[in-house]
Amino acid sequence: MKKFYAQFVLAFAILITLVSICIGLSGITGCASVTSAVAPQVASAVQKYCATPLAERQVIRAQVNTLISPATIRVTCPGDPAP
User: Would you kindly state where each structural domain of the chain is located, as residue ranges?
Assistant: First the structure.
């Protein structure tokens, strides 16, 4: 669980960082290829995350959002209650 949590947080942190850099450098080419290289890692983390029971996902959500505050990330998995 701890290893998955660390991978999940790292994957999203990398994605957020790369997207932020690309927004700042919006006129420079190559950002799409950089962020798309991270996308498979994020997709894998999200699939593992959604396979985790809801109660554990709620704990992970709270921990991740605390770490990245004031930003938030929410992944809605199939079967999740409405926010």
Answer: 2-67
